[in-house]
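Technical note accompanying the year-one report. For the benefit of new consortium partners, we illustrate the data format agreed upon in the data management plan: each record pairs a sequence with a structure-token string. No post-processing was applied to the example shown here.
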Amino acid sequence: MRLLVMGGTWFLGKHIVEGALSRGWEVTTFNRGRSGRDVDGVEPVHGDRTSRVDLERLAGHEPWDAVIDTSSSELPPGDVLAATTALRTATRRWVHISTVSVYEGWPHQPLTDASPLLECPADADESYGYTGEDGSPTKYGFQKAGGERAVTDVFGDAAVLLRPGVILGPGEYVGRLPWWLERAKRGGRILAPAPAEQRIQPVDVRDVARFALDQAASSTSGGYNITHPDGMTFSGFLDACLSETGGPGAPVWVDPAVLVEQGVKQWTELPLWRTHAGVWSVDSSRAVAAGLGCRPLAETIRDTWRWWAADGRPVDHPRWAEHGIAAEKEAKILASV
């Protein structure tokens, strides 16, 4: 099996590359050579995927059995279309890492793989789309929906679209789980979003990588929601963080209405917390039927803490700074409840 990974040096892309090499596959990676180091054992090709010349040069390294694209999250659909067009004759299949944000109903409604998608042309530029007043839909969602169309317009039934919600695990660059682990380690009274029994559905990056590789080697097509089929309660999540870090703390469960009144930013100041009904109601049964297997989230928490405690550091990313409530703000809210 010969695989091309667009990206391949950090987080999901790196886990995909390492998994492919462990299967004995021949792996080519294509990236700018700026974020992370190429994994030993790959054939690295450096270039800019928005450059027609660089894409043509990359195509000269063909053929591949499949492409897994992990590096289009910040690109407009037109750039995705340029890459799929340039590489159409170089590969049989294209596995595209997308997002649940492509759905019209996200995050307000429960979702299945058949839920309606946002509309965006395959050749749209970065100006297409908008973000609603309540934060949904998002311009990002429109852009990613257009990216999906750019893949399916070119590859048709040879296209696979993976739509993860939240991905956690060793190497995480967003900072959600590392923030909660550090907060648990600090201990004391920990501001926590009620209800404690709310189930959340993050998936482990290693499980997403394995499923992406399985799809690259298969003959399936279409979209798959990638969320944990069992999930974990928020109280179980925080208990696991406290257990792994040894932090001498205890959650204080505060009503979401109070958190909103106090100006706590959903999704970022308390990572993984959002009040919209559909956030953690994403059905992944189609992916499970196709072979998606998700390890217990307690294992993800354990392994992320071990990576982090061993001075693990992700690539620099602007989203990291968005996550976590300031200690002073947290203390003020806790004092009021």
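Partners are asked to follow this layout when depositing records. Residues 183 and 190 are 8 Å apart (CA to CA).
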